[in-house]
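Write out the 3D structure for:
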Amino acid sequence: MDELIYTTLLAKGKGVEIHACGLIDAEGRGHLFVGKSGAGKTTMAKLWQDIPGVTILSDDRVILRKMGNKIWMYGTPWHGEGGMASATRNPLARIYFLQKGRNNELLPQKEAATHLIACGFPPFYNRDGMDFTLGFIGEVIREIPCYELRVVPDERVVEFLSGQIPVVN
């Protein structure tokens, strides 16, 4: 019930909840790993959790909001199998749509809006809320680089991703 209340409140121009693992890397960059159940969100969180300076916001559900001119991600109390949740926030730097792969590979994502909606919690029962949610997701994908991440679920993916993203201050 509490999640339904949050979804309803977020849809009133506040943000959107996404089925994703959110984390802050040691350089302060926000990563969102999006996927349905079984995609590897908790696995991704476990691979990053013991790295010094990394904060896991959630291994299952993250809230996105726009504050000022940035898209922020927020931890939620609704964690996944790993039980990882943190009541903190961080600007979002990258979105990855998780896919299992034979190699770690980062590809441009051409269907980002469709995937975010499919892994979101849109208020289908509320037309105004749906209008906001769809518009907000469009804004997110225009502002944040989105990729398909084909991943081998082991520690090499952390090193792979760390080498793909420049540090921007």
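The first helix runs from residue 2 to 10.
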